Each structure stands twice: as structure tokens, then as C-alpha cells.
Amino acid sequence: MSRVVVPSGGALTRSMILDRIRVAGRISRVELAEASGLTQTAISNIVRQTITDGLVIETGFGESTGGKRRTLLEINVSARHALGVSLDQERMIYVACDLSGQMVGRISAAGTGLEQPGAVVPRMATELRALLDLTEIDPSSVVGLGVASPGPLNSPAGVLLGRQPNPAWRDFPLREELAKATGLPVMLDSDASCAALGEFWTTRNGATSPVNATVYMADGIGCGIIVDGRVFHGASSNAGELGHLSLDVDGPPCACGARGCVELYAAPRAVVAAALADRELATALDLRGDPVRTRSDFARIVRSATHGDDASLRLVTEAARRLGQGIVTLGNVLDLDEISLSGPGFADGGALFAQVIQQQLDQLPFTRDVHSVAVRISHIGTEAAALGAAARMLQQEVTPHTRVGRRLTSAAR
Amino acid sequence: MSRVVVPSGGALTRSMILDRIRVAGRISRVELAEASGLTQTAISNIVRQTITDGLVIETGFGESTGGKRRTLLEINVSARHALGVSLDQERMIYVACDLSGQMVGRISAAGTGLEQPGAVVPRMATELRALLDLTEIDPSSVVGLGVASPGPLNSPAGVLLGRQPNPAWRDFPLREELAKATGLPVMLDSDASCAALGEFWTTRNGATSPVNATVYMADGIGCGIIVDGRVFHGASSNAGELGHLSLDVDGPPCACGARGCVELYAAPRAVVAAALADRELATALDLRGDPVRTRSDFARIVRSATHGDDASLRLVTEAARRLGQGIVTLGNVLDLDEISLSGPGFADGGALFAQVIQQQLDQLPFTRDVHSVAVRISHIGTEAAALGAAARMLQQEVTPHTRVGRRLTSAAR
DNA sequence: TTACTTCGTGAAGTTTCTTGGGTAAGTTGC
DNA sequence: GCAACTTACCCAAGAAACTTCACGAAGTAA
User: Fold this and answer.
1) How many CA atoms lie within 13 A of A388 on its CB side?
2) A211-217 and A221-227: which strand pairing?
3) 3-class DSSP state of B226
4) pLDDT one digit per residue (tens) for chain A, 413 residues
5) Residue B72 forms beta bridges with which residues?
6) Which residues span the domain enclosing B46?
7) What stretch of H or E contains A145?
8) Helices (DSSP H) in B25-80: which residue ranges?
9) Do residues B249 and B355 both lie within one domain?
10) Interface probe, candidates A228, A332, A337, chain B, greatest B C-beta count within 10 A
11) Nearest nt by C1' to A61 Cα
């Protein structure tokens, strides 16, 4: 029997208020009452409780509007912390963040490479302890660990389903083992979904749009979709497979089995391959062509392009154009009005990609007729996935709109 | 200030219970308690209230399981009714349905043609009154009118934005004027979204999947997306523009401004045009080539294909293949596990389309790796949009998960 | 008939909000 | 400088929607 969690009662209200304070940064009780529709009395009681719990603190007063000044409230950002890690073959990134989503610590370590998951899990636990020691966070304030992984996965089960980071990881009970090794609640989700949530969570003043898509480029290309502040997962937590959206059904075959996938044209590996085919360019940029060095080779090409090199610029523009084609489709299907570019793939040449993609979207007839679509570059960059994974745990803690509460079944099988 | 309605309190619980009874068909209090997580006492009280209001009736008893038999509950289907209309240039379809989503009356009338909206609205009011007289529904039980329209629109504002049914309708305050003319609450949404909701609402035993997409083919091709029982609208209530998803960026130009759109290959107009180019076939099927007769010409071709005519079959298969390409993309982006085909375009040859599309989906690598995607043909066919539009009003009445309740702001502007 | 199970509901308590009535802390006008 | 007004915040009592506990009604099994 499938169950839908319908929140109700105090936990929901409390977390809504907390979320509102977090998003606003500083806010008064009166504003909370206006925004929430609750009475000032109710807000007063709820806020008192959160202050007692140490989640909220009073920080000064607002301007008087003809009477008593409003007491301003803020989230006590150090009341809770979360850890996040982006699982990656090349390089792992561990972050710790506070309740505001602000990164308070970061370390990076060797990627999974071809190691077995059974060997990597204890290493991760050690590295996470090192991060905690480094940041001097009170361990009791840590609410959990979020894990961002590339490739298809089963988020509820906490299991990877694809060939990432390497085939040995498939069906390994990752979440369970990590929870055992760290003693923390662990949640697993795709890097793109995590990055999307990271963008959303750390953007002050809340959602600018009810629907938000974040294109995440690392080795592959994925897309995280946020609807009403929550990750849209689809039927099996694998929505937003932008990288394997087919641009040309008669195009070159992809490892995924389809043809003409976005990744074949726009992923770092594809751009590097195209650059290597240009002997002169490959020599000029000192490209290695070593598969594990793809990311740094790609960075060289992008930097060369931003510095005005024609050959590099052509390659990057072409990749951006192809990616843009996929994004146009995505925007059409989901009726998006904002798209974020995030992840290590956009770290150096994000502006270049954004410009090309924005041009394509502006040419879109729908865009002209109904509303525009804006392309923005991530403000949290390379750490987006890890930070988003951590934010996912914080969201559970502070905004448990989908966790706490009464359960009502929406469908029987 | 944008506000998100967060339901809470009794209205939500009540409507959840009502929805559960509706979906189950017949259900006992004990089962409701188990499914909802509420106590039997609470269910008892809520059910008593709904019985008093005439929304629920007791209908016999279940088998004893060793003690007192369970009293079975059903929705009193005639307690509420809703009207729905699918706006169309060629032919308008009006339906009335009861609380179970069962159609209890249907009339069709001349389409909007090139008439001005100011002239059509009073005619619609007259035709709706005729439908009410015909069905002998108690007018006080009618909760509202749902309007399904092709093309881009602004659902909250109740205004059409595109060139459908004809350019004069653009920006006409349709919802407002219809509400005035009929004295009913009116809601406007895309035909595809309505059809999707119709499929969902009238399918007993509730959702088989949390995400459900319905491809709707009339003159154009659209797609309605249902997430957790509610229509997914995107940023501007125009999500699911499958018809203008580009299959080939270098393809033929489309009236929408883009190139290689699905509609150019798969819409009835495209199939008829291809058939007209084949002189022999056009003569054999007695095709007119008259734009306003496109739908019947298309039907002839599809029927000829299902009867085994090679030339027709090739044309229809090609259209289905192209549509399938778009659906594959859609399925990838949204991570769907079920797709419904609905609308007049699939009335005759739905099975043929379904077969070709299913084949394509089965070849999809993702489908093999993670989960299968099933294609099913609508069981409510040509009336899907109108019926879904009506269901939209019923959903508001019986399942006001998004309407009644406390308001909490999720974002400030 | 007796013992047991199961369904449905009444009575009383809990939680979460509301309404109504203060009190403290400001500003404004004379 | 003081009265009059505004505004913010909070206490007390009450309403609504649940809960737990208890019990009678309706059924089965030996």
C-alpha cells in the first residue's frame, strides 16, 4: 500500500515558520503572522518554543512604524549542521554547512576510482570525522549526511543502479553502510537533484519561481528539478536525465544504448575528444587525452575559449549550442522560467555557456509569446552537489513538510 | 506576495477521506482508519458528518472476519455534479458528470469556428442549460464548469494566450465572462491537462503511479502531467508542450517559430498532407484536403491503416514513430512509468499508435535498466478533455487539498 | 449458552489554534 | 513634558480536531 504523507499539526506549522525565518534572514513576529495567516498570538507561542529549543534567536529591533519596535528574529545558524559529499570517480568533495546553508567547512579527497564500495565507505567515515574535527562543529548538532551521486539510483532504497562511480557500486547498500559507519542518518540522491536543491536552499528570499531546473555538469550532464521547494523525483527518482536526451535519433550511438544524446556533444569528454582531433589545438593547450584527466583538459579548453582563442571558442560554443537544444526541450516540457547552470563543468566557462543558451531560449517562440526564460549561473559552483546533499538533510530537519505528520493513503494497490 | 496554500484542519481530512472512498468505490470505516492513520473514532465522526451532508451513503455490509460485520460506505454520486466543455474550432463537446466522474450527459454543438468570443459565450450558456435540462440534474448540485481549451493559456487568470480557437480569443476574459453568463464557478485549463486529470480521476483504485502523463491529440498534440493526483502546471500553466518539442533542429519550420516540431510529423494535419501527396491513396480514400475536414480525413486514413492498407499503415506508423520519439524524451525528462493516449486523434487508431510507441519505449536503455514504461489507451476517449475539465471542478469540491485551509507564504517578492 | 472477536461510538483529555483583553514600548501634537 | 494615539507582544479562555479509554452491539466458534 503506497502512502502519501500529509503533514498536519504543529510540526508542520513550526517548520514552516522556521523555513520562513531562514529564507527571510531577519524577520519580525508581525511579518511572520502576516505572511502565514496565523494570528500574532500563535506566532508568538511558536516562536517562543523555537527560541527555547535554540533554533531561533532575537537579534535587535526594526524601525518603529509609529509604535513599539518589532523584535527581529533570526535562525540560530549554528544550532544544526549537516554534512554532504559528492561521490565522484575523480575527486570527492566533503562539505559541512550550518542551518542557513552556509558552507562552514570543506575538504576534498581522492575519488572512488575503481575501488570497491566496501573499501570506500570506511574511508569516507574517516574523512568525515576529519572534516568535523577541522570545523569544530558540535557533533550533536549534526543532523545527517547527504550523499550526491552521479547516475541512476534508487533514492528511497539508498542504492545506486548504474555504472557510476564504477560498476562494482551497483546495488551496493550504500546508504545503509554509510549510516552504520558514521552513525548518522544518510540520504542518497542524484548529484543534479542535490545541486538543484542546493541552489534553491541557499538562495535568499526563497523561490523566484515555483518550478526551477538546475543543469548539473560534471563528467555527465544531469538536471535537477525543484517544484514548490521540493525535489521532483518522477516515478523512480531519476527525473531530469538531460544528458541522455536524444537530440538526433540518427546520431552517433551512445553508451547508454540510445543515439545522439546530449552528452555525446556537450559533455566535457566530448569537447576534449573534439579538441584532441585538432592536432594543433591539442598541442597548443598541452592536452593529455588521458581519460582520468578529462576534467582538467576540459578546463584548459574552456579557459582558452574565454581568453578568445578561436578554435577553442568554436568547440565550446558548439557544445553549449547542443546543450541549449536539450535545455530548450526541457524548458518546453516543464514550462520553466528559470534555469541554473551548476557543477564543476561550468566552473570556468559558465558565462560562455549561459550566453549561448540564453540566446537560444530567447529565440524560442514560446519564450516570446508567453514568458521569458532566464539562465543564471550557480553561485555555489563546484560544491553545489555536496552542499545540496547537506541541505537535503537540513530541509528534513527544519522544513519537514514531507516527513512529519499524519499519514493518509492516496492509493491502494 | 506569492502565497502557497497549506491545507490543515478538518476540511483537508474530510476531503481526503471522501477522496479515498471515491477511489475505493466501497470501503468500510475500519479500512479508512487503517489507510489514513486516523483512529476509528475520528473516522466515525468524519464519516457521520459526510453522511449528514448527503455526500456519503451506507450500502450494506462486508464479510465478517470473526466479529461484527463492517458497514460499507460509498460516495453518493448524485450529491454533486459538474459540467465540462472542450473548446474547439470544429466541434464543442459538453458533458455533465457525477461525483464518481461518470458521464451522465453529453451534447455536442458547432465549434467556435471563426466566431468572436463575445458571441460564443452566450451560446455556450444556452447549450449548457440545454444539457442540464436534458440530464435532469438538480441545478443546485452543480459545483461548477470546467473549460478545456487547446493552446497556451493562463489558467489562474482564465485567459487564452494563443491563436486557438481563433486569434480573436486571445486575451478575452473567458473565465470571467462564462462565470457571469452561467452563474457558475468556472475554471480554465489546457485540453491536455484536463484529459490527464480525467484519466486519473475516472480510473478506479487511484493512481497506479505518482507521475502520470497523458498525451492528448486533437488538432494539435499536447501532454498533461499529473503529479501526486494534481495537474503539474509549470511556471505558467503551459507544461507539457509535446507538440512543439523539436525532433530535428534542422527540420522544416513550424508555425510556432521553431523547427522540426512533433506536430509537423505526427499531427492529423501532417498525416493528411502526406496522404494527399500520394495521389492514388488520396483518391482511394476520397480525401478532401479541406482544412476544416482534416479530422475526418485523418480518421479515414487511420481506419484504412487498421484494416491493413499498406500505404496508410506506412503513414500512420511514421507519425506514431515520430510521436514516440517525443514521448521517449518526455519519459526521460519526467521519469514516467506510464503514459496514456487520449483525445479524438487516438479515437480510431489508438491501438496502432500505442503499439509503435510501446516498441520504441521498450528499446529505450533506461527502460531496460531501471523500470518499464507502459503505454495505455484512454478509456474515456473523445470526451476526455471535457470530462477532465468537469472532474477538475469536482476535485475542488471533494478533494480540496489545495484550496481550503491555512495559508502560509513560501516566498516573498 | 458461553467465550471470544470485531465494529462503531460516547466521554474525557490533549494539542493547536483563535478571540478578546490587557500591558509594554514606541511616536506625534500641543 | 505630557496626553493621546499606535504598535508589538502576551495571557487567559474557548473552539476544533484529533486522541485514548471504555463500552455496547453484532457477529463467530465451541
Assistant:
1) 36
2) antiparallel
3) strand
4) 323 333 345 778 888 899 889 888 899 999 999 888 889 999 999 999 999 989 999 998 988 888 889 999 999 999 999 999 999 888 899 999 999 888 999 999 999 888 899 999 999 999 999 999 999 899 999 999 999 998 788 888 899 987 777 788 888 999 999 999 999 999 999 999 999 999 888 875 555 567 889 999 988 899 999 887 788 888 877 788 899 888 887 889 988 778 889 999 999 999 999 999 999 999 999 988 787 788 889 999 999 999 999 999 999 999 999 999 999 989 888 888 889 999 999 988 899 999 999 998 888 766 556 678 889 998 888 899 999 999 999 887 777 554 322 333 332 22
5) B28
6) 2-76
7) strand A142-149
8) 29-36, 40-52
9) yes
10) A332
11) D8
Instruction: Report whether A233 contacts A204 (CB < 8 A).
Output: no
Pair A259, A373 in one domain: yes
Cell 562552514 found at: A104
Q: Can you tell me which residue has its alpha carbon closest to the C1' of nucleotide D28?
A: B66
B247 and B265 fall within a common domain: yes
Domains in chain B: how many in total? 3
Q: How many CA atoms lie within 13 A of B202 on its CB side?
A: 25
From A23, A161, A332, residue closest to B245, measured CB to CB: A332
Q: Output the pLDDT for position A340.
A: 93
Q: Is the CB of A308 under 7 A from strand D?
A: no
**A165 touches A147 (CB < 8 A):** no
* Cβ <8 Å between A248 and B245: no
Cβ–Cβ gap A408/B20 under 8 Å: yes
The identity of residue A112, as a single letter, is: T
Contact status, residue A152 vs residue B370, Cβ threshold 8 Å:
yes
Buried b (16+ CB within 10 A) or exposed e, B77-96: bebbbbbbbbbbbbebbbbb
- CATH at A237: 3.30.420.40
Contact A409/A216 with Cβ under 8 angstroms?
Answer: no
Handedness of CA A312, A315, A318, A323 (dihedral sign): negative
Does one domain contain both A89 and A218? no
DSSP string of A355-400, one letter each residue: HHHHHHHHH-HHHHHT---EEEE-SSGGGHHHHHHHHHHHHHHH--
Q: Among positive and negative, which fits the CA dihedral B189, B190, B195, B200?
A: negative
Residue B352: its H or E element:
helix B350-363
Q: By three-state DSSP, how is residue B285 classified?
A: coil
Grid cell 465478517 is found at: B64
How many angstroms separate the CA of residue A112 from the nearest CA in chain B?
A: 23
Tell me, what CATH number does B14's domain have? 1.10.10.10
Q: Which of B24, B57, B76 is the last residue of a domain?
A: B76
Residue in A with minimal Cα distance to B256: A365
Phi/psi at B348 (nearest 5 deg)? -95, -45
B412 closest CA partner among A211, A374, A35, A63: A35
Q: Closest by alpha carbon to B304, among B316, B293, B318?
A: B316
Domain edge (last residue) among B76, B106, B124: B76
* A338, A208 Cβ separation under 8 angstroms: yes
A413 domain residue, yes or no: no
Cross-strand partners of B92: B109
Taking residue B392's Cβ as centre, other Cβ atoms within 10 Å add up to 26
Asked if A211 and A334 count as a contact pair (C-beta separation under 8 A), the reply is: yes
Contact B62, B28 (CB under 8 A): yes
| Cross-chain Cβ contact B369/A162 below 8 Å | yes
Q: What angle do CA B402, B403, B406 make, to 5 degrees?
A: 90
Question: Does the beta-carbon distance from A234 to B8 stay under 8 Å?
Answer: no
A334 plus A221 within the same structural domain: yes
| Whether B229 contacts B211, CB under 8 Å | no
Beta bridge partners of B225: B213
**What are the cell numbers at B220?**
494539435
Q: Which three cell numbers stand for residue B245?
A: 518539442
At residue A6, the pLDDT reads 37
